[in-house]
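Researcher: Go.
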Amino acid sequence: MADIKTFYLPDLGEGLPDATVVEWHVKVGDNIKLDAPLCSMETAKAVVDVPSPYTGKVIKLYGAPGDIIETGAALADFEPDPNAKQRAEAEATGHHHGPKKSVGSPAPEDGQKVVASDEGGEVETGGKDREDEGTVVGAMVSGNTVHVEQAASIGGVKAVPAVRALAKKLKVDLARVRPSGADGVVTMKDVKDAAANGSAALGAAPARAVPASAGRHLAPELPQPEPQRGPVSLAGKPVRTASPGVSASGQPEQLKGVRRNMARVMADAHAQVVPTTLVDDADLHAWIGKQDITARLIRAIVFACKTVPALNAWFDGKNLTRTLHPQVDIGIAVDTDDGLFVPALRNADVLDAAGIRAAIKRLRTQVEDRTIPASELSGYTISLSNFGMFAGRYATPVVVPPTVAIVGAGKLSHDVVAVMGGIEVHRRMPISLTFDHRAATGGEAARFLKALLDDLSLPN
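Model: Structure:
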């Protein structure tokens, strides 16, 4: 009897509980080589290629594209080639074999610190050398640098997993997209352009020839228009409504990837944090010339963190411990069609306005392209939600543990303000500060908010 090996879905990053199958790069019966792409999986962080742990024959694939696979659950069965060199069972591979354990993942070692630069994230270790991060899959041993996704040639098309996932989402046939990247690599822009102009629609094909028929011609089949909804029926009577059936639009859909993780994070935050919100308005009347609003907000948050360190902190509700941070790493909420990302703007306290703008641009581009390293999506010390760029004045932003506070910036407005001897119209920015009342007092939060408002009111 052949020796069948089962490959279990590894932890694709920071203890994520599951991942979604984007596409399989093989089918049952195919022969695959060690470390060749097995499938692409989408997590809350990114889309990554999972490599084959064996050289041999694919016996079974668990799940179809779109299915959610739990971390530690069976992903594929293999019949290893007895004549080929296989990886030793004990060899570090970046993925973990065997079913999911009931015990949680170990905490990061003391002394580790995540640092960011314009080139990406890096990890400093103050303790012993790390063996495996659990965030990189394939024959890669964890080191001190972030591994960047490489374009793989599958089906004659070169593209990174994030581009393949976008093409699948937009129903674009990658084989028909004209690549513009180096060495013929298909880029995000190529896929978006193809989706916009319809030049590479998935499943599109030349019109089928109409078979000849003796003595008659067959009319081409035309798509039938969907029935239009209206307040009255064809008989002129009011339409009676009924609860929608399971086949109707608007029915529940399974959350996946980023939105699935967002739902978990928000639920955990709601269950763990004791939130309290203070609101006020920043008076921008004294500003001279054109100002970068986001850069000014970040500068004001840094000033407030230095004035009242209690809100630039992490809080452990289980052990009732608080960690104050000397540096200010600000989580910037970025809204996308796939869900909410919160990349970390590292070392905001030592960046000038130009450095802040360059770092934000880099983070946004990496979020949009789904190439942002997992290390950049965690470890911030305080958060900023600039929701006012869309709409809204005040809010109750959600504090995500272990952070203690989040600042929300509302939509700018021109308000009538009472001044000595009369009234004036000033440009003002609504500010909302939500903080975890277990870790900070109301007085600390109020002093923090005052320091932030004072810095925003300065001319430049």
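Model: The radius of gyration is 27 Å.
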